[in-house]
Amino acid sequence: MRTAVTFVVTALALGALLGGGGAGCGNDIDPDTLVRELRVLAIRFGEPTAGSVAEVQATIDLSGAGGMPDLVFSQPQIQLKVLAVAPTGPGRRVTTPGPRPLQYDWFACLGRLSLFSPGTLDPDCRKFAPGDPAPRQNPVLKPLVAMPSTSADLTLETANLKETLGAFLQVLLAPGSGGTGSGGTVTLPTRPITLLLPVLVQVSVVGGDPMNPLDSEVAYSFLRILVALPGMTLPPPNRNPSLPVAGGVQVSGEEMGAMTQLVPCADAQSGDCPRYAASRTAPLFVTASAQAGSVETYTPLDDSGRTDLLESMRYSWFSTDGIFDDARTGDQHPQTQWKNDDSRPAAPETQVVDLWLVVQDERGGADFQRFQLSLP
How many domains would you assign to the chain? Predict the structure, then answer.
């Protein structure tokens, strides 16, 4: 299993990567920033618009049908998007040039460890290896789509989460359950409950070999869900940070030199886009910044007593060629250096390098963009 940028929801919200990324040339292991094969780089919860809601919120309604408690969601649905790329050509793991169409299969992890230990992926949900049963036959993996789709987007109806969340809440609030009381009593929480639901996506090459690790990749991220009991007030929802269309990434040939804005591609996964002329030998200094308003103030839903915390942004860099001096940057240290040096040079035939930038906050929000460099 390869741990990647893709966010932890308790810390920096976009999950770990499983499956096929480990293939390499002998014992020479690529840095995490180098994308030469099928890779999942990010998962985003929320619409592809600036400041979209990045979590699900619900209230327990005790006046449900038949006197049964019901979950009332603040929004009818939430959109999921995975950033998965499969570069080909000289210097890649698959050297034959040309696009590799991908398909996507989504699951929710219902393993007990994930439900009762927030921020944990139950080991029973990790079974995607060639010798494991088909994921759709795994009882702890709940399919979120009727069948794999060629779309990297998924619209998740929040009402479909009722059964999953209801089972957890029933145990959490039952008399004598762990942490809620003993001797038939219940100690109710005093603030909204934070649930972290692992959402997994299996990305595979259409028509590929499921036994080949270069043709399949599995990633997961935690969907943050806040549940309020009657009488509680839900906090403002976390919103996704946004990368601006202009000025989000700036480049220079010198560390303190004049900066030039990079223009992002219209699509983060495929297609041509504006290209910045880079050198094959000289380094390129790149700086990232999120759109104004991306950094939010929030109060943690814990017993720490902390209030009015400012989010921290983390920027993660990826490219099909070359290396970055710093794979992760932040607002306090926004600059990194991309180099096409001797350790990971672009093949002589390569004239276009893809760069990806993923920005994350610490509560599960994310955004991403793609850029292209042209080499002489």
Answer: 1
